[in-house]
Specification:
Layout lengths: L2 H11 L4 H8 L3 H14 L2 E4 L2 E4 L1 H16 L3 H26 L12 H28 L4 H15 L4 H4 L6 H15 L4 H6 L5
Helix pairs in contact: 1-4, 2-3, 5-6, 5-9, 6-7, 7-9
């Protein structure tokens, strides 16, 4: 199991359960629980009633591990892939806005099946275009490979009639996973959300 993948998942989620980590990373729950206990003993994670979270020391450790990871990767390739991702991200944000608001600015109450199907079709088209890019990202930074599987799984749930997997924040919805991928791409490129937000590239 990649320890950084687990710790970074805790960072981007804020709170992380063993079950959610197991599903996201494709690692058995027993191994996840053992890792959590080891990180707890090291002072990197704290346990709460709702899940595990990074301690301040854990955040420092994760930042250091990401820096070490970055030094072993092709920074030019990652930077180029991030720029491509940002181009697709603009369409993702527009699609999610369409899911939440109709063209006249009123909330989408999800009572118009035709409208929702049109947005899902738009999301499916975006995914088809983005998937090769995300595959390239996984090749350049193997730790990020789990995002491709999770995005595909979210889209499958949507197609099977579970619209919550479009954007609901408390589950591995398409938007949640995409947001976490964006966070990880910024981190691995040595960027901050604040700076990217000022540049108009952060969600």
């Amino acid at each position: 199991m990649n320890e950084l993948a687990l710790l970074q998942l805790a960072r981007v989620k804020g709170l992380l359960s063993a079950e959610a980590a197991s599903i996201a990373l494709g690692v058995d729950g027993e191994s996840i629980s053992r890792a959590f206990e080891e990180f707890l003993a090291k002072g990197w994670l704290g346990s709460t009633a709702r899940g595990w979270r990074l301690t301040p020391e854990g955040r420092k450790i994760v930042s250091r591990m990401v820096e070490e990871e970055r030094s072993a990767l092709d920074s030019d390739a990652l930077s180029a892939l991030y720029r491509q991702f940002c181009e697709v991200n603009a369409e993702l944000k527009a699609t999610m806005t369409a899911w939440q608001l109709r063209a006249d600015g009123t909330p989408n109450e999800h009572t118009d099946d035709d409208y929702d199907r049109a947005v899902v079709a738009r999301l499916s088209l975006l995914h088809a275009g983005a998937d090769p890019l995300i595959e390239q990202i996984a090749h350049a930074a193997p730790r990020l490979a789990h995002y491709r599987k999770r995005l595909a799984a979210a889209l499958d749930k949507i197609r099977q009639g579970e619209p919550a997997f479009v954007a609901r924040p408390i589950i591995d919805s398409y938007h949640t996973v995409w947001f976490e991928l964006h966070e990880d791409l910024m981190a691995i490129n040595g960027l901050t959300r604040a700076a990217e937000a000022r540049a108009g590239r952060a969600q």
